[in-house]
Amino acid sequence: MIPLTTCVWLSLAPALLLQGKKQEAPSTKGVQNRVRKTEPAGKPVKTSEQKARVRLIRKKILEQKARARDDRLVLRSVKVRVRLRNGESLLGVVKGGRFIEKPKGLEFVPADIRTKGAGIRLWYYDNTDGYIFLPYTLIRTYKVLKTLSDVEIKEIREGILKNRVRAEEEGRRRKEELARRAEERKKMEKASKKLEEIAKRIEEEKKAKAEQDRLLALVKEYPPSKGWGPEKIEEIRIRKVALGVFPDERSKRFIEVYEDWKKGVELQKKIDAAKAASKEGAPGSKPAGEEDHGTTGKPPSKEEGETAGPSR
User: Fold this and answer.
1) Is residue 158 part of a domain?
2) How far apart are CA 116 and CA 132, in angstroms?
3) pLDDT of 19-60, one tens digit each?
4) What are the helix (H) ranges across 241-301?
5) Which domain holds residue 109?
6) Residue at 32 is within a domain
7) CA distances from 230 to 216, 233, 239, 243, 307 (A)
8) Which of 129, 71, 116, 125 is nearest to 98 (CA)?
9) Residues 6+ positions from 215 with CB-CB distance below 8 Å
10) 267 domain residue, yes or no
């Protein structure tokens, strides 16, 4: 048999348990509400480790910016290849790691890539002793090929200077050679010009000789001693007008070549005078004014001169 006190306890136990649950529920809800108030809506809560990492990253960024602004910072020189937007490629050296600069007066100062006019100074490009400033607006890409020490930089410059001395010496020798060739060409041109002048003079003399021969041939064809001359021209004209007698072929030709015939007569007189002057003073020579009329010693008669002319 179960005692009465035990029965009473068992009957009251469910009610006591239910009352305990109702008293614990408000305390749990209050904690949840306090948690929601401390957490921002829609944002995750950062742990202390994450916050420390963010602070470290920010510190490093600030340190890098400070080093970039410090002109006293010593950076390594490098050998680079720069490709331009027009397709050309340049090989040179960037000193002190100064990849971004801008001109300021006569000097160059560090700059930001977004700065207007910013560019890069390329030293010893294409084996030249100096630099060229290339704005980034002209550059497509650049590539670092090698890190250079101060000794290597010095060797590069000394090599360029040696090449310059060698090039200057070669240029001097080439200039002397070109001057020598120019002098030889000048002499050859002068000699060629002289030869051309001689050839031209010979040609003119040949033409003059041919012309003289032609004129003297006309005098020989129509000798004045046979009555050919101005009187013959007048005679032919009178016979044609007064008597209606036309000249023959020989007379016609004489009329055509009459002007050249007169030149031939003058030329023949000069030749005869020169021959007479050269024979003056020679033993047995005749006086300059004496004429040679052939073996008879008499001038030809009018009848003889007419017989050599055209028939009536």
Assistant:
1) no
2) 18
3) 544 444 444 444 444 444 444 455 566 688 888 888 888 888
4) 249-256, 258-278
5) 65-148
6) no
7) 17, 5, 14, 19, 17
8) 71
9) 260, 261, 263, 264, 267
10) yes
